[in-house]
Design brief:
With 292 residues, the chain is of the alpha/beta class. It has helices at 11-27, 38-41, 44-49, 60-71, 88-96, 113-125, 160-173, 199-213, 226-236, 245-254, and strands spanning 78-82, 105-110, 130-134, 146-150, 174-185, 257-265, 284-291.
């Protein structure tokens, strides 16, 4: 987006952002340290509207290519979306498999109720059914319960040891020939134990949010403090680094998968912003793997 280009924000997306912001204040998950994730789920969709965060839309080509592969295969019916900031992946899957809507069983799992509610509202509005489950994914799933698993930037929520456990859980829950489709940012040789915005990145993120909030075409965002949302998001964001492409490949294969795609792709996004969870970043890998 050019520096002076107007942002086109559709009414449906704006309403979804408003709903998530309100719902998150009372329904977001309380972590073990009693901190709510409302800073994340309450602001995410506004930041997404302003093209400030990395979402599945940025990597739509990868997901759509993989969905085309299974669209005509009747053995792919039970699909899991594992972790969901909003309804973006549900929308992508539904649109690609709309012609098989009646036979597709789509399950969305997240530890927080807010994104699950967002996914449920989307499915209700578009006339199809999904199953939502509020749970820690490390609790696991039934063996061979799914034909495909879709995630986006999810493995960064787990440290190396727990990430390997997660991959084994996914493998166990997929039937033989099932597919894992994901995108993951890899930060080669990242020095710190936790990924977070640096001070100058927080400042740049806040400045950019303030600037682009004024570029929303025909949409009045004045009732929402976008700058405060961006500040809280940048200050609160924490993740675990995936430090090595080779290590991640080995972990995926060790869990019981054959890799069909493991390809680095530079992502183009918002100008002038750097940070741990923004779209204009290098190191995103497009991943497709088959359960052996």
């Amino acid at each position: 987006m050019g520096a002076n280009a107007l942002l086109k924000i559709d009414t449906e997306s704006l309403q979804a952002a408003k709903f998530a912001h309100a719902y998150a204040q009372t329904h977001c998950h309380q972590n073990s340290d009693s901190k709510s994730c409302a800073w994340y789920h309450g602001s995410w969709q506004f930041l997404r509207l302003l093209d400030l965060v990395s979402t599945p839309d940025v990597h739509a080509a990868h997901f759509n290519t993989q969905l085309e592969r299974i669209a005509g295969d009747p053995t792919f019916k039970n699909i899991l979306v594992c972790g969901s900031a909003d309804s973006g992946l549900v929308k992508t899957i539904h649109e690609a498999l709309r012609h098989r809507q009646s036979e597709i069983k789509l399950t969305v799992v997240d530890i927080c109720e807010t994104p699950l509610k967002d996914c449920q509202l989307y499915s209700d509005k578009n006339g199809f059914q999904i199953t939502t489950s509020k749970q820690d994914v490390l609790e696991g799933f039934s063996e061979s319960a799914f034909d495909a698993i879709f995630t986006h930037s999810f493995m960064g929520y787990f440290d190396d040891a727990t990430r390997q456990r997660l991959l084994h859980i996914w493998a166990r829950s997929l039937r033989t020939g099932g597919r894992l489709i994901t995108v993951q940012r890899i930060r080669e040789n990242y020095a710190n134990e936790v990924v977070q915005f640096k001070d100058h990145e927080i400042d740049a993120f806040i400045d950019r949010a303030e600037n682009v909030a004024h570029l929303a075409d025909s949409i009045d965002l004045s009732e929402f403090n976008i700058v405060e949302m961006a500040k809280k998001f940048a200050e609160s964001f924490r993740n675990f680094p995936v430090r090595s492409a080779e290590q991640l490949k080995t972990m995926i294969e060790t869990a019981g998968f054959t890799l069909e795609r493991f390809e680095r792709q530079t992502t183009q996004g918002t100008e002038g912003v750097t940070g741990p969870s923004v779209p204009n970043a290098t190191g995103f890998y497009m991943i497709a793997a088959e359960r052996i």
